[in-house]
């Protein structure tokens, strides 16, 4: 089966994980799901996940971009926007990210935005073990690459829902 063929079970599991995530908002754990739209077509997703945010002010991100929209700089735009929300909007102290070792584009985005290598890990991809690169970005590192053209709207109204003072 091709990666791009329909897989109803995989789609159902993916949707259930999103529904579960939307229903789980605690001081120590929350996840925001954003859709990436180009023109009027959904082309990807960018998530921001609060990991013990109430204690450590740490976040991690997850993204996916349709294959025919890759290599256009959209991945970097997506990550820049979510980092701006995390650091400027929510006051995060640190952001982490992971990418499969062979996902050159995602690893390049992390490096270009100032993330530093932070070890490795393993995950499964389509049922097979695959190596991950781990990345970390502290607030001071983000400050050197932060964008001045990103506007945040409605953040103050969202913070109490996420237990952010």
From TrEMBL:
One Pfam assignment: Acetyltransf_3
GO molecular function, one term: acyltransferase activity
Protein name stated in the entry: GNAT family N-acetyltransferase
Organism placement in taxonomy: Bacteria, Thermotogati, Deinococcota, Deinococci, Deinococcales
Entry EC number(s): 2.3.-.-
Domain annotation N-acetyltransferase: ranges: 1-138
Keyword NAD attached: no
Domain of life assignment: Bacteria
PANTHER family named among the record's database cross-references: RIBOSOMAL-PROTEIN-SERINE ACETYLTRANSFERASE (PTHR43441:SF11)
Natural source organism: Deinococcus oregonensis
InterPro entries: Acyl_CoA_acyltransferase (IPR016181), GNAT_dom (IPR000182), Ribosomal_N-acetyltransferase (IPR051908)
Keywords from the named record: Acyltransferase, Transferase
Record's keyword annotation contains Iron: no
Enzyme class: transferase
